[in-house]
Amino acid sequence: MSGDRVTWTPTASELEQLTRAGTRLSWRLVGLPVLLIMVVLGSLIGTLRGWAPLGFVLLLVIGLLASGWSWFRGGRAAAREFATSYPVGTEVSAEVDDSRLVLHTATGDVDLPWLRLRRPRPGPDLLAVRDLVGGKWLMIPRQLFPDPWLDRIGPRPGTPSAPS
Q1: What is the C-alpha to C-alpha distance for residues 146 and 118, in angstroms, rounded to an integer?
Q2: Exposed/middle/buried for residue 157 (C-beta within 10 Å: 0-12, 13-18, 19+)
Q3: Which of 60, 70, 134, 146 can bridge 31 by disulfide, Cβ–Cβ 3.0-4.6 Å?
């Protein structure tokens, strides 16, 4: 593959920071919407049924429990994923060319065509990007995804799959 390449050797503190960032991101993508939906449903159902305070509190508690569970599960999943793919002291890398991003991790290579990736959410520690094939959010350490590569995500103007 000819193109740009970056390498990175994770440290324990970087892995901890990635886990914290992954937990927060996972909660914002899953837990927060669940909590907001439960609050709105609690208000709406409570108002329509005439038991506003009780219905609101009940669904708020359910929403808080679901949101807390999302935080817990997201943190465990992020810790497991980052520790497996980017072990401390192991060199990992990423390469790009005009058509794709390839991540070389401890668990193997991940080949991601640019046209599969949408809705980038760059943060200081992680890039969250939506994979159109599975519909999942991918979390890529920013050490493996410099800012200039952000312009490559999604269809570029003039390509057949670009939205009109």
Answers
A1: 17
A2: exposed
A3: 70
Q: Sign of dihedral through CA atoms 148, 153, 157, 160?
A: positive
Q: In degrees rounded to 5, what are phi and psi of residue 57?
A: -65, -45
Give the whole-angstrom CA distance, residue 62 versus residue 155. 40
Antiparallel, parallel or unpaired: β 137-141 and 108-113:
unpaired
Q: What count of Cα atoms within 13 Å lies in the side-chain half-sphere of residue 34? A: 17
Chain-centre distance for alpha carbon 25: 6
Model's pTM, two decimal places? Answer: 0.73
Alpha helices in the chain (DSSP H): 12-26, 32-49, 52-85
Would you call 8 helix, strand, or coil by DSSP?
A: strand
Task: Express each pLDDT in 117-150 by its tens digit.
Answer: 988 888 899 998 889 988 888 899 999 999 989 8
Taking only the tens place, the pLDDT of each residue in 21-75 is 988 888 888 788 888 887 787 777 777 767 667 767 777 788 888 888 888 887 8
